[in-house]
């Protein structure tokens, strides 16, 4: 894992540098060029899957931003964990944390990923709370049924 500062990990995002910006007249990437458009993996349903002979569009997007190094470390960790049948959450917790810190530092670029992650976390929380409430209701019903049975 790299110990680089997430805010300075990759300086290619700064305006005025040599990196192409969408709409930059010096850029080889022009509006309408579909290769420059990031597609939400949820909305595009599977477009993030690897293309034949190339990288997935999500991976390309992640590596174009300021967190290339953190994302690559995360990819390697995930691949190793899967290959060795290790718990990915335990094994990759540090690189995952570093990746999200970096994305927060570069939120102007990664805002859609961060928004999707936040929405997913909120949905999981809602589902967990709903399940918890359902279990509590069942417990209350069981207590009432037992009291009624005892008479």
The total beta strand count reads 0
Q: Find the structural class using helix and strand composition.
A: mainly alpha
Oligomeric state of the chains present here: single chain
Q: DSSP helix count?
A: 6
Low-confidence stretches: 10-48
Separation of the first and last Cα atoms: 64 Å
Rg, Å, rounded: 22 Å
Shape: elongated
Mean pLDDT: 75
Biggest pleated-sheet summary: none
H/E series, N to C?
HHHHHH
Please bin the fraction of helical residues: 55-70%
Strand content: under 5%
Describe the protein in words.
Pfam families: GCK (PF07802). This is GCK domain-containing protein. InterPro entries: GCK_dom. With about 150 residues, the chain is mainly alpha-helical. The protein starts with about 40 loop residues before the first helix and ends with a helix. The longest helix has about 45 residues, at about 105-150. It contains 6 helices and no strands. The protein has helices at about 40-45, 55-65, 70-85, 90, 95-105, 105-150. α3 packs antiparallel against α5 (about 95-105) and α5 packs across α6 (about 105-150).
Short description:
With 151 residues, the protein is mainly α.
Element layout with pairings:
Elements: H1 41-44, H2 57-64, H3 68-83, H4 88-91, H5 93-105, H6 107-150
Organism: Brassica carinata
Region (Disordered): 1-54, 129-151
Pfam families: GCK
């Amino acid at each position: 894992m790299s110990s680089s500062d997430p805010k300075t990990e990759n300086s290619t995002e700064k305006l005025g540098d040599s990196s192409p910006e969408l709409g930059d007249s010096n850029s080889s990437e022009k509006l309408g060029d579909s290769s420059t458009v990031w597609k939400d993996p949820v909305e595009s349903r599977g477009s993030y899957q690897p293309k034949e002979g190339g990288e997935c569009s999500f991976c390309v997007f992640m590596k174009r931003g300021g967190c290339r190094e953190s994302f690559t470390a995360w990819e390697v960790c995930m691949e190793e964990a899967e290959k060795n049948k290790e718990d990915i959450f335990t094994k990759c917790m540090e690189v995952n944390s570093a990746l999200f810190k970096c994305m927060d530092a570069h939120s102007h670029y990664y805002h859609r990923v961060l928004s999707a992650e936040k929405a997913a976390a909120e949905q999981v929380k809602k589902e967990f709370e709903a399940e918890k409430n359902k279990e509590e209701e069942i417990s209350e019903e069981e207590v009432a049924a037992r009291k009624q049975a005892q008479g």
